[in-house]
Amino acid sequence: MSEIVHTDGTVFPKQASENGPKARRRKPASVASILLPAGQRLPAASRRHPQLAAACAAGQRGRFVARGSTSHRSTLAPGLHLVQLEPLKEPLSSHRKEECTMPAKAPPTYVGLDISKARLEYTLDEQRTASTDNDAAGHVRLIRWLKSLPNVRVVCEATGGYERAVVAALLGSGLEVCLVQPGRARAYAHAEGLLAKNDPIDAQMLRRYGQAVKLRLTAPTDPAVARLRDLLDQRRDLVDRLVEIDNQLQQASEVRARWIEREKRFLEQQLDALAQEIARHIDDDPTLRQKHARLQQLTGVGPILASTLLAYVPELGGVGDSTISALVGVAPFADDSGPKSGPRHVRGGRAAVRHVLYMAAVAAVRSNRVLAEFYRRLRSAGKPPKVCLVAVMRKMLTVLNRLLAQPDFILAD
């Protein structure tokens, strides 16, 4: 529902549009009860034609004029100036009553941005696109053009890291950015029947995707969290390489084994040095240090899991339990259709977090008395071991979310 505001500040609700199917079956409401202050009457012509008067007040007088009804163009009360506000995007609630006399925020101007290693392709409108270099100078040119648009919102895909610099520049300049998963954007293109693919086509498709789907705005990353994430990315690469080396040593010849052992010792030294740098970085930041210690209050959570959650799940402590479970990928999703009730499966989420959380759950069912009892109860109910471990992962994530969200939350003994 939208509002109509008189020049003296009085707000009147506007009735449903006469164009709707239900409005055609209802008798139009009296215009005098909608538009005029108490004690003021409409002219006789307006009382005889309430639909015309309502249409004039709502800015739809042209509908009646086009039909030939031109003899009542001046039937509203003289001196009555009306301002029609934008419709609210959602119903008013008790904590939003101050918005009833304020226009709703203008709809965003969506801009599709396709990012590659060397170029940035962006939309000018539905037909035209332009491009610039994916470097600092190109980012400045892109931001200068975006600033010339009203209420701009950029929609782009994650492209393996090539998007990081431009997204940081856009967020730093105060622009709204929606960073979407490439698989979802490609599924939308398939739903459109769009089979062709190149940079201009992708930019225009992303623009339409932002207009059609309610996307989540990307929040700027805390520099301390971004640095911690980079350190943990490097640690994960070292761990993966050490696993590969251990596998190679099982089949390596004597000549190759000597060189592989030398590489293994070097990587182990690098891993130790990296662990010390991660610890120093957390200790130097008061917020990270406090959250890191708080998470480890749960038995089974060590420094690696706590650091991983802080780096890859910045939403922890700020969203609901079901949302955080879905973000990590430990929430079971229904697979039902009619009488069929399929088994629930977890899917999606952030694999880097889920891998570490799984190993922490294995340790927790051995060392945490409450989680161990929870695991045994599920096993005695006939649940498979892997299902029980995923349930323990979800339980741990819920508890950790509460620990950060509620400072007075106390764990059971």
Describe this structure in words.
- The protein has 413 residues and is of the alpha+beta class.
- The chain contains 16 helices and 12 strands.
- The chain has helices at residues 32-35, 44-48, 50-57, 61-66, 136-147, 164-172, 182-192, 199-212, 223-249, 254-284, 286-295, 303-312, 321-328, 351-367, 369-380, 385-405; strands spanning 3-6, 11-13, 82-84, 109-115, 119-123, 129-133, 152-157, 176-180, 332-333, 336-337, 340-341, 345-346.
- Helix 9 packs antiparallel against helix 10 (254-284).
- It is globular and about 60 Å long.
pLDDT average, as an integer? Answer: 80
Strand content: 5-15%
Low-confidence stretches: 1-7, 11-40, 42-50, 52-104
What class would the helix/strand composition place it in? alpha+beta
Instruction: Give the end-to-end Cα distance, rounded to a whole number of Å.
Output: 53 Å
- Global outline: globular
Got a strand count? 12
Radius of gyration: 30 Å
Tally of distinct domains? 4
Order of strands, main sheet, comes to 6-5-4-7-8
Number of helices: 16
- Please give the largest β-sheet: 5 strands, mixed
Order of helices and strands: EEHHHHEEEEHEHEHHHHHHHEEEEHHH
What is the helix fraction of residues, given as a range? 40-55%
